[in-house]
Amino acid sequence: MKAAVLYELNQPVVVEDIEMEGPKKGEVLVKVAATGVCHSCYHAVTGTIRFPLPAVLGDEGAGVVEEVGEGVTLVKPGDHVILSWVPSSGYCLYCTQGYSNLCLKARQSERGRLFDGTTRYKKNGEPIYHFAWVASFAEYSVIPQESAIPIDKDIPLDKAALIGCSVTTGVCAATNTAQVRPGSSVVVFGAGGIGLNAIQGAAIAGAEKVIAVDLLDTKLEMARQLGATHGINASNRDPIPEIQALTDGLGADFAIEAIGANVTFEQAIRAIRPRGKAVWIGVPAQEPLSLEPGILGGEKMVMTSTYGSARPRDDMPRLLALYRAGVLKLDELISRTYQLEEINEAFDDLLNGEVARGVIQF
Ligand SMILES: [Zn+2]
Ligand SMILES: [Zn+2]
Asked: What is the pTM of this model?
């Protein structure tokens, strides 16, 4: 089976044949149809997200169930599925409270292994780990049945793949984490794969003003196509005065940070009004963040967002319904498709900001 494996930090990913075992109890073998090239994978390449190596990367995929292990009841062979990077148990403390994105069973498992503590991938007898449960940079992936989210068969799988990470993380950060209200103002820092989706999430939620902040005019242009009403290029200026001018001098109701840099974490707080809410989606860099005392004055709220506070089994089919209704844009997000062998080139394009989303098709 062909897969893209990361052996060492900051090295190119190796596309090669590896050994794969079939699904065990409670597991599902998926023939991957398409997988998005997501920044979270690149965070694994640089070590910003720590993960055991070697690992098959890929956290945003969709495909067709080929085979199921003993005791699998949630899907059957032939089902089309999105691969969720949180295999929500449905019964833990957080799942029962409605926060299945924070499933304890998933969080308390050892990274890179399936629930029984082993991997299904090997090379020369040595284990290869599963990145983020999904490991979709491979022709096949073995996942827990809880990670297989069944979808209707009329949805093209390359579009469905995007729901597996960036669309859900971005759109639901606006709708679920921030809980953007109709008529409100929203600033989104970063118009990359996640930020563009936070922008369309804010627009879908009925925000009156959706202000995109980025360093590239090309991305601000994409942001407008996805629902931004204003764009600010912050490459040579502080965006805060302009945000205030657009929001009656008060600041925005909501700010969403989709970069993962200390400067924008802080700007997100400065951009909101008293009682406003700043949502940090970006994966934080390693340096500590120091803030001026009083920056949160006026009951400002800051919240992080994991998987857009989404309940995958509920929100993912809902997002596809919005796509079918023409409300959620997915086709427009895919700027380039690649072969698995071109994965390192796809990462380069991601870093250069040349693509909204690159998708690998099998
Ligand atoms: Zn991702
Ligand atoms: Zn759970």
From this structure: 0.96
